[in-house]
DNA sequence: TATTGTTATACTCTATAACTATA
DNA sequence: TATAGTTATAGAGTATAACAATA
């Protein structure tokens, strides 16, 4: 009883621990799949964000992602440098920059979303389809704020 | 259809997004509760880790938490400076430092774990008891690596 | 006056490399 | 030679403050 290193440690039952490590594991699974596309998971999230629905300004995008608008500047800079998005002055308000995907950005987004599905499938592999769906739904409700 | 800002955005259905924001929300709920104890959530996780079972060396602790051993040095430094833990040379191996909670550290750990339960309860409030349990179990299985 | 994007700057978190002591 | 802890340093990632253009 002195080398009881296999005992279930309470830290690993904390939600904070579980959420952090689930995220780490997802990143581990996903990054190698993104690498061939030449983008990071973060960048793909941005392509997904700006690629859907009506064009968003940088600030709209920042708000949705929960990051600061100054952070968004750098993120959009990266994508613009790779030719995946372009900035357009908003017709109605010349202060705003609408972020739009280029043709190449659109292609990368589609390929990336397929890869995201693969990574999520790997992460959720230990769960039944039902439990996987339940996990996603539960997280969604938590995030949208009880 | 130009100001369709309420449409469900695909980014927010990605597991990466959900996990990150669930974590952010938990931190939001928990940090104000930890503040009166004079510790951060991170520090409490360390107290929980080192407070249970047989004493762990810094490196053992680092491995369990999934951080680098150099990171662990700084984390233990903080707790030691607050008088919550002390380092002891391991009897069998003078290179190792066993991290043990002081009496004060034990008191803070207990208070902190109670607060952690409260924060988790707040986070899980939108879920039924059954779904909350299902979420914890699903995350556990994912993290332990299916 | 207020807001959007931008820049400069600083802060936090974490890891890599190199050192010391022990094994 | 290898391992545990340590230190110095550097790299992400992010935010705050101040500025220019526009509203």
UniProtKB/TrEMBL annotation, chains A, B:
GO terms for biological process: response to stress. SMART domains: HTH_MARR. Transmembrane segments: none annotated. It comes from the Bacteria. InterPro entries: HTH_MarR-typ (IPR000835), MarR/SlyA-like (IPR039422), WH-like_DNA-bd_sf (IPR036388), WH_DNA-bd_sf (IPR036390). Residues 12-144 form the HTH marR-type domain. Keywords: DNA-binding. Pfam families: MarR_2. It comes from Amycolatopsis australiensis. This is DNA-binding transcriptional regulator, MarR family. The lineage of its organism: Bacteria, Bacillati, Actinomycetota, Actinomycetes, Pseudonocardiales.
């Amino acid at each position: 009883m002195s080398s009881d290193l296999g005992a279930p440690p309470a830290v690993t039952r904390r939600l904070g621990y579980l959420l952090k490590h689930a995220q780490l594991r997802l990143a581990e699974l996903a990054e190698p799949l993104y690498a061939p596309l030449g983008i990071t998971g973060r960048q793909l999230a941005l392509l997904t964000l700006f690629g859907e629905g009506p064009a968003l300004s940088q600030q709209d995008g920042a708000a949705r992602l929960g990051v600061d608008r100054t952070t968004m500047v750098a993120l959009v800079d990266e994508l613009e440098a790779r030719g995946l998005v372009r900035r357009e002055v908003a017709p109605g308000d010349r202060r705003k920059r609408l972020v739009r995907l280029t043709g190449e950005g659109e292609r990368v987004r589609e390929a990336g979303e397929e890869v995201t599905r693969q990574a999520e499938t790997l992460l959720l592999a230990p769960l039944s389809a039902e439990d996987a769906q339940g996990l996603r739904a539960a997280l969604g409700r938590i995030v949208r704020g009880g």
